[in-house]
Task: inverse folding
């Protein structure tokens, strides 16, 4: 069941660590910031949390021991977006993503080019400590220790926006880019309909344009939770791995309805508006939710 609130602004983000981020976003907005300022400030909290090993420079490094960060931001007004990928040594990738959106004719800057842009724009840097994480020789098959913050928001004027930031899959190959900085994959905002964000194994989100699909299902009339579930079902039907995909979505719509769903036992997500800030459990999804998987069954 999607839930609904008339309270604006409304912030929804992935994981329990989204709660302090949501609260910082609400404070920023109440202090006179725009909805985009709020998203940037909220995600910035996760990026500088030294205990967060999956967002920002405390994140688990890649197979060469280097932390490479992915982020994007999207503004429903004007359908604008910006992102950075494989960005090294910059404290706030979400802010660089916003600068790409606001100050360049481009949408996505990567690697050395993204870092050069960030330095030219005066963004703060930090030498990257390995935060005690072991350097790994190869990409592991497991998915442990990676949790993106995706945050979507609905403002009092009915406009939507969102952001996403991650250090990505721990021990990934250098240069690997996940779903999180890719508009339509890790995040998508359509000001006519709603917004969605993803967390999980990026390869399994980006092959299906997951967040875009969630928004398109909302356009067809599904509630946010139904749209998240339907997207997971569709992916599971097509993918040979069925439900063994480690993917999770959050979504909000123009009416202030919000919801989430994830594979397996689901995941926790955070919701905040004035007088309300909670961590909620999303429904989980397994084979029994859809019947046969592994083929293109319709
Ligand atoms: C990635 N989607 O780079 C990110 C990681 C993540 O929960 O969200 N993990 O694949």
Result:
């Amino acid at each position: 069941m999607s839930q609904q609130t008339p309270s604006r602004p409304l912030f929804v983000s992935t994981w329990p660590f989204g709660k302090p981020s949501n609260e910082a976003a609400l404070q920023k907005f109440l202090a006179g910031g725009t909805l985009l300022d709020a998203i940037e400030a909220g995600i910035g909290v996760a990026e500088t949390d030294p205990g967060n090993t999956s967002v920002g420079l405390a994140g688990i490094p890649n197979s060469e021991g280097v932390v490479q960060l992915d982020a994007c931001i999207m503004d429903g007004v004007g359908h604008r977006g910006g992102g950075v990928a494989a960005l090294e040594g910059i404290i706030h990738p979400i802010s660089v993503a916003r600068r790409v959106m606001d100050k360049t004719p481009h949408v996505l800057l990567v690697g050395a080019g993204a870092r050069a842009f960030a330095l030219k724009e005066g963004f703060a840097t930090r030498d990257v400590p390995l935060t005690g994480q072991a350097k790994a020789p190869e990409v592991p098959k497991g998915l442990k220790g990676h949790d993106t913050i995706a945050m979507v928001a609905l403002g009092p004027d009915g406009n939507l926006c969102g952001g996403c930031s991650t250090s990505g899959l721990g021990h990934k190959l250098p240069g690997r880019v996940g779903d999180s900085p890719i508009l339509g994959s890790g995040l998508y905002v359509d000001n006519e309909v709603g917004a969605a964000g993803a967390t999980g194994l990026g390869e399994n989100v980006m092959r299906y344009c997951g967040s875009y699909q969630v928004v398109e299902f909302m356009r067809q009339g599904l509630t946010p939770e139904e749209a998240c579930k339907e997207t997971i079902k569709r992916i599971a039907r097509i993918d040979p791995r069925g439900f063994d995909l480690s993917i999770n979505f959050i979504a909000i719509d123009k009416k202030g309805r919000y919801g989430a769903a994830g594979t397996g036992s689901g995941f926790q997500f955070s919701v905040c508006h004035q007088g309300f800030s909670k961590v909620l459990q999303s429904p989980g999804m397994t084979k029994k939710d859809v019947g046969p998987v592994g083929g293109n069954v319709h």
User: Anything to note?
Assistant: The chain has one domain: 8-127+144-287. The pocket of N-hydroxy-L-asparagine is lined by residues 146-148, 166, 168-169, 178-180, 199-202 (CB under 6 Å). The two ends are 24 Å apart (CA to CA). Residues 134-144 have pLDDT under 50 and may be disordered.
